[in-house]
Each structure stands twice: as C-alpha cells, then as structure tokens.
Amino acid sequence: MVEEQAVGTVLTTLQASDEDSSIGEFNITANDYFAINPTTGVIYTTARLDYEVVKEVKFMVTVSDTGVPALTATADVIVDIINLNDNEPHFTQSEYYFNITENSPQGTVAGKVEAHDGDVGAFGELTYTLIGENNKYFSIDAYTGNVMVANASILDREQLKELTLSVVAQDKAPATVQKSATATIHINILDVNDNAPVFTRSTYNSTVSENAAYQPPAALLQVQAIDLDEGLFGDVRYIIIAGNEMALFKLDAQSGIIYPAQSLAGKHGVYELLISARDTQGSGTMESTAKAIITVLRVNRHRPEYVIPALSNATIEIPGDIVQPDYLLLTVKALDNDTDDSGRISYHLQLNNVNVQETAEFKIDEYTGELRARQQLNRKNRANYDLILVARDAGNPPFESLRLLTVSIVDANENRPEFPDAANPYKVSINENSGRDVKVGHIQAASRSKHNRDIFYYMLLGNEDGAFYVDKLTGDIFTNKSLDREQTDAYTLYILASIKADLHISEEERASFSIKTLSRDNTVAKVAITVLDVNDNPPVFEKSIYYAGVNANAKMNAAITLVNATDADQGKNAKIEYMIVASNLYKFGASKSTGSIVPSPFAISQDGRITANTIMAEYNQDRFELEIVARELEQPQRSANTKVNIWVFDGTQLVRVILSRPPEEVFQEQEEIIAELRNATQHRIIVDEIRFHLDSIGRIRMDWCDLYFHAVDPQTHQIAPVDEILKDIDRNYDYLKDYYAGFAIENVVPAYIAIVQDEFDLAVAGLVALVIVLFVGVISFIVLCCCLKHWNLSVPVETRRKEALIKKQIIEDLNTTENPLWIEQKLKLYEEQELTMQVFSEPDHISNSDAPGHLDHRSSLEQVHHGQSVDNTYATIQPRNNQNRLTAASGNNGGGGGSISMRSGGAGNAGGLGGAGLLLTRIDPHANDFADYATLRNNRAPSMYEFTGSTFQAPIRDGDDAVAELI
C-alpha cells in the first residue's frame, strides 16, 4: 500500500468459505493502522501511513462460522508500505552568514551549508548547487555543502564588502517528483592590511604668527592620511620624524593636528617637518610620509581698541540747525598695546571699503583723530549721517578696528535720554526660585526735549545667561527664568536708553563694551540685582561613610573624628545641627549588631566633632556604627545621613609610618598614602593620628612626622594584626618603593613593641608541681618522725608531781573572792608555762587538724631539763568583745619552734618553722560567743579576758623551783 493514503482507504477484501455453514464474522488483531469490517471482510486504514515511520504492518485476521460450536480460521496479513517523495528538503538555516578574508586563494572554504530531507533512500539524498550572479566566484561541494572560493579576483574588501549567493538542495527523486529547497548565503569579506596610508597632499603649508597661543595650544595645520583598510588596519597614527629639532611643535598622533609646543615669540622663520603616517595604530608595517611647511611670521600682536566712541554703534548729536565747516564733532581715540611701531595708530574714514581721510561732508585727521565737518551741514536738508571710523595700526600685517558712528543734527531743545544720578545705579533684590516673568524693578530715563519723544531700553551687558529681560517701552525688568542663588548670587545689568526704536546690538559689539566707560555714561542704567537666598538645599555630608578609631585607654571627651556637612544655602538657612541617632555595637567577632547603646558612648558637637562620652576600655576590640544626622535649623528642616564606623583598638594594634616630611605636608597627601597602603595590603586603612617624630634620643623632629594607623579586614571588619600588615607591606615592597620615595616614607614599624611572654607549658608546670609535692611530703615525713620520737619520751615523776600541785593551787585560788588582778598575777607563771608547752608540744597536731580537741601539754620545765632553750614571749589580756583573734609569735634558738593561731571555736592552725609569725583571721562578730569555748579543757565558760597573744617569758635558770615561786 502506498503511504500517505487517506483514513478509510480499502486495503483489500478477505474472502472465506465454509462447507457446512455460512461465514459468521471477521476479526483482526489490534494494531495502529488497520481495521476490518466484521461482515464483509473489507480491511481499511484507520490512521495515516508514513513510510518514514513504519515500513510494514503485520496483523492476523480471524474468521468464524455460524455453526455450533463455532469454528475459526486465521490468516497472517503483511502490508508493505510503498515510499513516496513526500518530504521537502529544508536547510538548517534560511540564511547563512560566512566570513572570508580578502585575497583568500582558490579552494579556501568560506563555510558549510546543510539541509535535511525526511524521505528515505534516494528520495532523501540531497545534492547542493549554487545559483545567482556571483556563483562563478564560488563553488560548492555537491555532497558536503562546503562553500569554497572558485575565483579570488572578487575578494577585494576595498571594492566589495559583501556578496550574496543562493544555494539549492535537491533530492534524487525522478524529475517529475523531485523536490528542492533554497537558502541565501551572505559572505562578508574581511579586511587584511594590504593598503598603506596615503596622505591627501604631499606637502602641507601653514602660516602662523609668532604670538600663536600655546596654552591652550592653537591648531596650526592638520595632515591627513587615508588607509582604505578598516578597523585596526585602517587606524592611522602620525609622528614627526624630522625637522622638529627645536621641539617647537607637537603633533597629535590621532588627529594629525600640529600645535605649538612652546611659545613661538621671537622664533619667526620657516620650518619644514617630515610627517610619517603608519597604520595599525602606529605599529603596522605600512607607512607613508609627507611634508608640513610652517611659516612663523613676526606679527602685530594687538588690535587697536577704541576708547572714543566706546560703543560700536555710537551716535553723537549736534544741537542746532546748521553745522559750520571745520566744526569739531568728535576726537576719535584708540589704544594699541603694542610697544613698537606696530602700536602707532592712524585714523581714517571708510568709504566703499576704501580708507580715506575725507568724504564729501566730513574729514578726519590721520594722527590726532579729530573728526570735523568739511562743509556746512543743514539739518533741514539732512539730519543724520552714518560714518565708518577706522583705527589702523602700523604692524605687519596691520590691524584695523571699525566703529559705526551716526552724526545727528538735532533741535537745540532736544537731548538724549539720561538716567537721573540719584537713582543710578539702581539696587533691587529678588528671591531665588521666583519663576519666570516676575518683575524685578523699574528704570526710567528722561529727556529734556519739549517734544514728547519715545525712549527705548536695550540690554547691553550683564545678562549673558539670559536671566532677565527689559521691557523695551516701559523700562520694567523681569526674570526670564527661575534664578538659583547658589549658582549666581548677584547680577549687574547695563541697560541703554535710546530714542532709536529699532537699535540692534550685535554680540561682537557687546564684547567690545568697556564696563568702565559704560559706568560713566548717563544714558546707561546700572542695575545691581541681589538674589536673596531661599532654604531650598538640603545638607550634604562630605562622605557617605566615615571610618575612625579610638584608643581603648581614651579619656572622656577625647576627640575621635570630624564629620562635615555643608548646606549650599546662605546665612541662617545654612545653619545645621548634628545628632547621633543610633550607636550600634558590634562585639568583637560578631557580624550582627547587638543593638544601639543608650545613652550613646559618643557625643557630637555642633561643628561635627565626635568625642568619647564614656570610658572606652569596656568596649576594647569592639566596633560601633554611628548613625549621624545633620539637620537644618530652619524649616523645612531637611536632613542628611551618614554613618561613622569606629573601632576601639589597643595601642599595640597600630602601625607607625615614619616620614621625613612635616605633618602639614603629610595631611595634604594623606589620601594618596592611604590609597597606596590599601592597594598593597588589601585592607581598609584608617589613620588615627599624625604627630611630630620623636627620634631615638628623645628629640622632637619638626621636619619629620609619624603617621599612626590601624588596618581593618574588609570582610570580617576586624582590626588586622600588625605583623600581618607589615608582612603585606614587605611583600609588596617592589610596588611601594617608588611611593616610598615620593612620599618620603623612611620606615614602617609597629607603633608599640609588646612584651610577649612564652606560652605556659602545662606539662612542665605539672612536672614541677609533682617534684614540689614529693619534696614537701618527704620533709613532712621526716618532721613527723622527729615529733613522734619526742612525744614518746617518758615524763619524769617529779615533773608530774609539780604539775598536780600547781593545778590544785590554781583551783583553790579561783574559788576565792580575791581581786581578779591578784589572780592574774598568780596565774601568770602557769599561763606562761601552759602557752609555752602548747607551742612546743603540739605543733603538728594543731597544724594538721581542723577539728577542736584536748591539747596534750608538756611542761616547759621538762624541756629545760632536757637541755632545750626556752622561747621568749609576750602576752596581753584584752576583753573578748574587743577582738576575736589570737596572734601568736615565737622564736627559737636552735630548736624547733612555731606560731599558733586559735579561733574562739577551738580550731587551731600552726604555721611555719624557724620562728615565722602569722596574722590570724578575724572571727565573725555574730558567732555564738560561748560556743567558741565548748571544746576547751573542763568545758568552762569564758571569762571576760582571754589571751590574744604570747607572753614574754624569761628563761628559767637551773635549780629554780617553779612550784615554790607560784605558791
């Protein structure tokens, strides 16, 4: 079956036969393209057949009879799809753009076209051909589509920049069904440097006067060379290669204009320059040359300038009806600033473009400038005469200045209009921003003529920007635009009053007016206009963000930085006030603010000076971001905002730059120094102070200074370590060395040298501690052994007997009613013995126990008998409620000794060896007084007095009877 048949097209009709019954129905297996009529067996299409999609379709047909049971038969149907040429070729692009350089040889591939055909086999195979008027210059590979140069003669970009071809793609179907497609090929011919620059002339000539301007320089002549190439290849640069040995001229390499490089005064002559033009911006291989001949002339430097008459279109009025011959009308006066013969002026009248000394009516003296009537002039015959005055100097070439003079013979009663002296100059004022056509003031000139003659007003000078205009008839002055005081705050207008209704004043004439002459002319009104200020400008900060730093040791009111806002307005409208509206704190290492500190740690004065308002030590290493507002005092109180970042630094975080220049010069170049350091370190550099340099012997160098700064990492906003900044500077020394010399930088060092301690080694410290503990333990063990040996000694029977007798006697004495002072005296010896025994008998026990207990007393007498020396001590008795402390001090002479501290609670602590003293802790005054004595011997209540120290004890001599002395 042929592809592309309509849906429903019959493929075939199946026939089946059955010998014993009739045919029941036909069925077909499921497929996408065919169906069968169950009754007739006709197979027809259900979908479009495309050979490029499916080349054959297979399905099975089943037929059944009408018998019982029904019997079936099957048949396989294979449908072959017959291909048709049903697809058009199509190019990947409708238009192709290829580039090829000019002068490319034959066979050079310009590009490739490509087309596709959806058919299969020969119907889908394509061939390419070129058509069009330019196809003879190119060829195409019929199978690959490569477009190649066939004839290179056309590839000249200077003749043809672009050409167009048409390409056809055809399939290989028979001619009757063959299909094709067409695309357009645009070939852009690229330039190569195959043309040299060509000067428009071989020789250029120019004549210039020796007073030609050179600052800014005046153009003398221009050379031009044309290169037919385009782009870089056609970009021509010029250079003087010869003839400029005196360096009088300079040549703009791009434009080819020759300028004077210095003053040409006194350097008249002829100069022949050889100019070279080279393509490729001066670096190409193509070059051509031309000559430029410049003639410098000795010239007249100045033109004559008229003094009388001052106006270029002046009028003189001669009263009367008749002017007699030789009447002096005017003495013409002109000045020439040349000092030599070029400044000598002669005066003439110009008639028919010829300078003459006489006309029919007038004559002028060539040397004095006196203008006189040559014949009688009658007003009735002619009232006005127009003359052209010529002032000519004697320079080479000579300069002439012209003036148009009108001679009017007027009635004796008539006069020119004049402004009254009392009103002239006029002074008026107007607010800025008043708009257009606002009346500023009024001027009025008067004429003495009896006849009513109209007066007209003309603007002469002072209105160069067109801000005002004057009503020609009334003399009213109006604004011509909205005025801005910040641009121009005052105007002085010069307005002429004239009887001429159509007076025209050219710009050249305006330029020739002299303010001094106009000020003396009563026909000219001087109007002084003052533009009054309006509050129409907001404050503006010099910077949108300020950066500063403050030392953590800074005192109150220490100056930190200065912010400055200006208001373009004037007077009270320019007054502003500063406020700190937020002081956002960024703790060290934090990227987010903890909030605004209230009250602010900073203050700002009305001149914009920011100072410390608190001690900054608590904010060390933190950063503040201040929000500053500058607000007008006058309505509408416009405001401006800025931010000030302040780092609180330690002095050791500063870097010092030593410069061999005074501070005032460094202040001027501060921004340049900061910029170079910022480029070298890639950090934000913030200058904190510039001060005079102090040398190594302590002298102040007034011609040197030190610049202190800290550097901030722009990413983390933290102050960078000094050593890191110094490493960056050292790393970029080659880059900075030229700037070192330019800025007179002698050295860059840390601002302060910090003493850095070695790190604490825990391992070593632990080892040392272990050795000390072992040493103390060994010593303690030895002392304990000695004490145990001492305690184990037997007490003599005689000593125990004496102690018993002493105790008995004391108890008896205490039960008497004797004066306590006598009791104290009787107890003194025992007390001394008791305290002495405590010191020598129980040092280890007291020092090693915090719990109270009974003291094991040893007699001091026993120690004497054993050959030991007795301590000298002292004692005082004080009331308990005065102090609750006991201080004991002792000394020994070759024997063991110590000191005892006893709290009223009964606990004791021993201190030191070798007679050292120990100050004891104070007892809590609120403690239970009697509980402190609960652990003393016999559990007696405390008396009013207690021992607060040791007592002095004299040595006991051998043979003394201590018991007898006590009794």
Describe, in short, the structure shown:
This protein is α+β, with helices and mostly antiparallel strands and 967 residues long. It is built from twelve helices and 61 strands.
What this model shows, in words?
The chain has 967 residues and is an alpha+beta fold. The chain contains twelve helices and 61 strands. A five-stranded mixed sheet has the order 26-36-35-30-31, with no helix packed on it. Strands 45-53-52-48-49 form a five-stranded mixed sheet, with no helix packed on it. A four-stranded mixed sheet has the order 8-15-14-11, with no helix packed on it. Helix 8 packs antiparallel against helix 9.
Assign the structural class, choosing from mainly alpha, mainly beta, alpha/beta, alpha+beta, or little secondary structure: alpha+beta
Distance between the termini: 158 Å
> Spans with pLDDT under 50 lasting ≥5 residues?
817-967
Number of helices: 12
Could you tell me the number of beta strands?
A: 61
Coarse morphology: flat
What's the rounded overall pLDDT mean?
Answer: 79
**How would a crystallographer describe the biggest sheet?**
5 strands, mixed
- Strand line-up in the sheet with most strands: 26-36-35-30-31
Quote the beta fraction.
Answer: 25-35%
The amount of helix comes to 10-25%
- Using only CA atoms, what is the Rg? 61 Å
